[in-house]
Specification:
6 copies of one chain form a homohexamer.
Chain A: H1 3-9, H2 22-27, H3 30-50, H4 52-63, H5 68-80, H6 87-100, H7 102-118, H8 125-131, H9 133-149, H10 153-167, E1 170-171, E2 176-177, E3 182-183, E4 190-191, E5 196-197, E6 202-203, E7 208-210, E8 222-223, E9 228-229, E10 234-236, E11 240-241, E12 246-247, E13 252-253, E14 262-264, E15 269-270, H11 284-287, H12 291-301
Parallel strand pairs in A: 1-4, 2-5, 3-6, 4-7, 5-8, 6-9, 7-10, 8-11, 9-12, 10-13, 12-14
Antiparallel strand pairs in A: 14-15
Helix pairs in contact in A: 3-4, 3-7, 5-6, 6-7, 7-9, 9-10
GO molecular function (chains A, B, C, D, E, F): serine O-acetyltransferase activity
Region (Disordered) (chains A, B, C, D, E, F): 1-33, 265-289
Keywords (chains A, B, C, D, E, F): Acyltransferase, Amino-acid biosynthesis, Transferase
Chain lengths: 302, 302, 302, 302, 302, 302
């Protein structure tokens, strides 16, 4: 996302420098957060002016708020509330958690940048903040995970349930998720209790990181940094998907996948063969490069 | 759906001739629309009398309205509203769009007939209008697509997001969808920005028409007229699924599929082989013929 | 779930004996129901005391009610209501049906026990009652099925539609489902009109029990007792999955699967070969044993 | 209200005999209740047919219910619910109370007949049931009073508060109210803790039956049978308004008023003089005779 | 309200000529309406910019709408809706009625101007449109009256009931109300079935125009043009309050009041005496002159 | 309210000393606030245990909150929200204002104590906090007044309007109200823009502090400390009601009332005569002594 594009997207906003890569962004926290929040407000202001029918929504959800954490807490509270879990209660809960833990805020910012950089359909930060159920589910999960780590488990599980109902995204609150993670489309994603997802990962819809039976313990996949998991892939058991690996759409993965290799098929096999799998140089979770992937696949299939 | 069946389904309604095929139906517009709307009201009236617990719902959603477009706008407004996007605003938006574009109304009628003809579980037009999330998501998409084409993009994207939340159907507003299209069950369907879907297509749940990377441009599948796509199929990239082709359930398709052929498997291959694929005569999107398909598949597997 | 675990989970409750297996449980009805209800109240009381933010929800949904059927009816009424199908109407409908049919109540209890015993992430009965969309969708289906069997079809279909919207679980009201059934995660499950599911079955998310075409009649799978169906499996047509069979995640099954055998892959094949498939001794639907399954699979793949 | 009028009002209903006077009606309970309920349903059915825009409301509130107590409980539950006192909870509470105490039901029926007979603007029983805030506030009070008498005081006070918010009618749950009571228009009525209201009383809007200070004990008015209290009258302290007395609009009454006499003015005095007040023969609470009253008043004023 | 004041109130709006008197305004319809609507939008835009917390409300209620009738219909629909009378239904009803009857729109505009001119606390047109329950109740009444005149009585009475619940203003739909009427504060106003209110009338809160008994027929007050009725006044029976008369606060009026005279007290008497009442020159309903009134009163009292 | 009574009312709470008089209470701020909040929680806990049907309400509104200001903000937010003014927005607004202005909190505490001490029907602090519309309207007014003083007038007027709709209490945000004020029953109270209400005042329902015409400026009553205003009294114009004065129910007051005197009647006159009005020693706003008042009145009348 070069600077020109950003400027084109929100002409009325102060000019921004091209954003650093999402993971860097997460490091210097507050500045990045302020910059993105300014951009979001500029986008919302532009859209509210152009589209009166949407202005009320944009004001209530973004423009009425003094900070990203308030806007996000309001939006999540409204999305996830029910007749028995009131929006004010959820708003309070989200706001308290986001306010007290800057790492959750910087992770949210990194996720926003990740979506904006990696997804060509993501036309603006505000588009992601308002409309991406994967983004919203992930932020709600971060709060649920925080509650879980504070032994507030019943509340964490209630949040998980609301996210599963509203977004059809089912992430156990104990699961650990890194920064700059993109859940694209997100419908049907299931992530189990002992799963771990690294930084800079991109996961498409209908992906399962599932367990292997009725006994507890460490039983879910570990996803390394920079991994890309295609739509509908099912990864089961305490397997390790190495850094920068790529998992093909529709794959069923029951094996470890080495770093920077590609696994495809049902059951999944390594492209290039088990003993000497082909390696790539890119970071698939960032590059989202499906094109070469298709070639590889074709090679593999023939 | 022979005439007897229709008459049996709604004995209190004026006798209807057997409906023409959905695509013909779409041509002569108003008459077809009036006929289907009369049928819907007759069905709703019969059900309201038989089931007092449902009568309020049937009156508010169907019987209180003077036209299909009002009923549909009301129903979509109620389904898709949220605490920050009020039902009256959405109702207004849907009603304006349906009122001003007869092609959207005839497409809705063609979709209703398609569901009634092709899905044996679809017992009446009103059943589809009230209960089929695929039907409702598709009509909301048509409105979002119209808004997109008018450069009202923020509003179009907000609609897409509501449909994705409420129906778990995620169709980019830029995607082009023909008439007489059946999204059966529909949960988990994802259709990307540059995808095109022809007329008389039937698409089962969990189907993805996805992109191939982080760069924009034309990057999603083109689905020809009369295609049938089985449950859970994933089609990726700017590939062409020819007219009357059939895609097996659970397939992962990364290749062009010639007209009237069948692709199955993960990765998908053509039944009969790449060089001389077997051809069928029927229109799978209309015939929904999975039976012979099973035979073909078995042949292929063995 | 040994007795110690139960006691640990709810220290303030009267000590319970280790529960019998779910199916036995279903036999002696009332006692089991009372025991589980006592346990649920004890869990909710403990959680309400520990977590004031959740207390209101726990009181309104569990602790304010004198019986499981009232709590469940209230919870389903609130979850499934809409602006045109009011919570009071649904509450009345659920309560009447659960009150008049003890078999629905004992099935709900057996389902609760099944989740508690088989799913290591299910930390308490109340967690399942409150948060498991698969459990809630299944109980709503039982009521819809009852209505269907009383020829109250329009109402049954309206319920199906609400469940499909709210939980992304789409079960035709005519489908027959046994007791002690676990729908784990449940998002995206589709079960067709003539499908039959036996007792002690466990079904993961994204599973389809689908039909084969546009003609009515008996066209959906029959799932025997004790079957385990992995995530994303698609079973199509009037095929028979024998007692105690196991279906691998992501499989596409178009064939009969003999009792106590395993089918995997797309298209699915029997582990050990078509003619002499390997047989296991366990009841997969109860044991949830994915571990050995992975081994089998690896064997098969190589 | 002669029989012809009743028949004219609801031609599709079975012919009713002219209703006995409200108080007699209250005696033979069930029959009267069934007869009035049949009439209400006939009226609602007629209105639903004539006015599709109202049909949904009439079905959900009246026609979907098998009995008056269910319809009334549903209606009160919906009117009085809030985001923290859910409609299902209130519905349950009203239904339980009305079901278990036939005297509350016969009082409601007597109140309906009283409104129908005494108020020329009351065109039907269903009009009163649906629209008269005085009627609805009174029925909710009867339930609150029952709860109060069972020492469920916090719940009774919460109900009082909801009625005060929603209908602007503030009746302390300890106040005792007879049968066949008409609160006409009702806005602003305040009735204190130790007030007693007899049978066949008619009370207009803005009427206060208030106390006299900050000490507890018996400190509110006692209103005899058949009394009529005009709009805006304020009666303060433990005074006795005798049977069949009439209180002029806008009066401020701090004295006992003997039976069948009239008090008017601020401060109120007896028409005819303190020592030999004029007496009337009618029952003002039933006859609602303001005409002669005007004459009396004029006499008095001059 | 001189032009300067108007301009001061909304500096960003195009300069308006000082409005003609409300009744003149009502004559030339469309222009006045457009001018006031422009002013309302300018005010709302100014307030939305100054107060982000209110912007969402101002956009949804005013700025998202292309015309006053849509804004008003939306606002009334949201204010008056309930769980059984949906906002979309009411919106439709209001919009249809306002669209088809220009006299209702010009009456609304005249009422807005009346409030702005006569009430020093009315700081802007938008303040009245958004916040004056008397204004809103009156517009809803105009629609109910229209329905009543079309024999849609059940619907008219349902509207009356909603207005009585929500605004505590109870106006029978048959009552006739002129233009440029100000209901100030409005709580507790009751207007009976055969009452008539002229043009340029101002009525304070707690005012009753009531009937005289249980028999039908013409039994409520007739209020002439330009009348001012003080807070808490009760006028009973088919009496005539002459043009330009003034009724003191708290008065109880049972007699005809000649034009341009003043009635005060309980029971009310004419200032200056029955035979030669003092006459004033102003139009009290427009001048709202309570000051001289106090002097007169004092004279009268002494 | 002696200490024993307090202890009897909430046996499970820590023992409290008898509260000082409300005005003293307001002085030492935080301690008083903490003490009253502890008492409220103890009462709510006791009621929640005794009444499961109310527990959810008591937890969501009181027990889930760490402070009185949060509980009050939540309660007001839920009471006053609408479909276009969301509860989260109002909650935020109330919480910010109460948090930043301790004088608003101590005024609320003083009002709670005033209700508890003066109103024999006020059985507990929590009863007042939850159920007294006068208390709630007054606290919302304090926030609106704060906003008004910050020139956030549009928002202040929107709040006034919500309070007028929901509680039928219409207080202009510019009006100044002291501490330890009791609005008893409160329905129909109207307080104008330039009105001032002192400390320790008690005001019954239907009381108007109104203006005198269409011109701005200082035009509403000034109510001194310790005044008691009876139900339905109307006080008009910039008159001065002296400290400790008493205004009879139903009075219409257009004159200054000297300190510690009583005005009654329509038009109101001073008890004892204009030139040498009788004086009392008590503070009527605190003593609420209507008993001697009746005697005075009787004397006066005769």
């Amino acid at each position: 996302m070069p600077g020109e594009e950003l400027r084109a997207a929100a002409t009325s906003s102060p000019q921004l420098q091209p954003p650093p890569s999402p993971m860097d962004a997460a490091e210097d926290g507050g500045d990045e957060e302020a910059q993105v929040w300014d951009q979001i407000k500029a986008e919302a202001k532009r859209d509210a002016e152009a589209e009166p029918a949407l202005a009320s929504y944009l004001y209530s959800t973004i423009l009425a708020h003094p900070s990203l954490e308030r806007s996000l807490s309001f939006h999540l509270g409204n999305k996830l509330c029910s007749s028995t879990l009131l929006s004010t209660l959820l708003y309070d809960l989200f706001l308290d958690t986001f306010s007290n833990d800057p790492s959750l805020r910087s992770a949210a910012v990194a996720d926003l940048i990740a979506a904006r950089v990696r997804d060509p359909a993501c036309v603006s930060f505000s588009h992601c903040l308002l409309n991406y159920k994967g983004f919203l589910a992930c932020q709600a999960h971060r709060v649920a995970h925080k509650l879980w780590s504070q032994s507030r488990r019943a509340l964490a599980l209630a949040l998980q349930s609301r996210v599963a109902d509203v977004f059809a995204v089912d992430i156990h609150p104990a699961a650990k998720i890194g920064k700059a993670v993109l859940f694209d489309h997100a419908t049907g994603v299931v992530v189990g209790e002992t799963a771990v997802i690294g930084n800079n990962v991109s996961i498409l819809h209908h992906v399962t990181l599932g367990g292997t039976g009725k006994f507890g313990g460490d039983r879910h996949p570990k996803i390394g940094d920079g991994v890309l998991i295609g739509a509908g892939a099912t990864i089961l058991g305490n397997v390790k998907i190495g850094e920068g690996a790529k998992i093909g759409a529709g794959s069923v993965v029951l094996i470890d996948v080495p770093p920077k290799t590609t696994a495809v098929g049902n059951p999944a096999r390594l492209v290039g063969g088990k003993n000497k799998p082909r390696q790539h140089d890119e970071v698939p979770g960032e590059s989202m490069d499906h094109t070469s992937f298709i070639t590889e696949w074709s090679d593999y299939v023939i």
